[in-house]
Predict the 3D structure of the following.
Amino acid sequence: MIKLSEIATGPPKEAEKDKLKSETRGYARRIGELHQMMNADGKHSLLIVLQGMDASGKDGAVRDVFQYCLPTTMRAQSFKKPTEEEFAHDFLWRCHKIAPAKGQTQIFIRSHYEDVLIQRVHGWIDEQRVDMRMDAINAFEQLLQADNNTTILKFYLHLSYDQQEIELQQRIDERDKNFKHNEGDWEERKHWDEYRKCYEDVLNRCNKVPWHIIPVDKRWYRSYLIAKTVAETMESWNLEWPELKRNEKS
């Protein structure tokens, strides 16, 4: 049973910042190489799910980890309030239509889990629908794995309450972060305890595909852990460049 209150939101004392930042850059370069091989090979697809409280560093993780990947073979989708068209469909419709094709990487910045988090916290859906949606999420993720050889890596970005306040305030105080400021984030912060409760439920019940819980109070440690996990996962596929195909002459 996962209890977030028992898991640290920062790096261990022995973690060396400069060393791990250097290793992160190495992992990111290797991910870029493996990503090209994956695209050429055309047998695997990769779905990255990034979930976390507001200001937990989802965008920064994408920048640091996937900076060497060709943009033509990957996409990042930020999940916001559903459009009218999306509201007119089942809650997984907007996710399934952008699931990665073979040879492609898709990043979900937030994801299908929003529909059992924010909607639950605010009481927009009842617990019967929550149960139904969690079952559907598990089935959806298993389908992607079994039917399309999609590897799913799910990361919960584990942020402390105090660090969230610092990050949100920086969006007001620092000009290059002003564009991220949203008054609504401060309102959502008032529901911190309820969000944590709902996240714990998600982590424990939607775990057919396991979660990686990433401490994010120090962003360099966040990027290191995610890059390491992605690189090691892709290495395990034993990717190879496809051989040259020649036309045989009769």
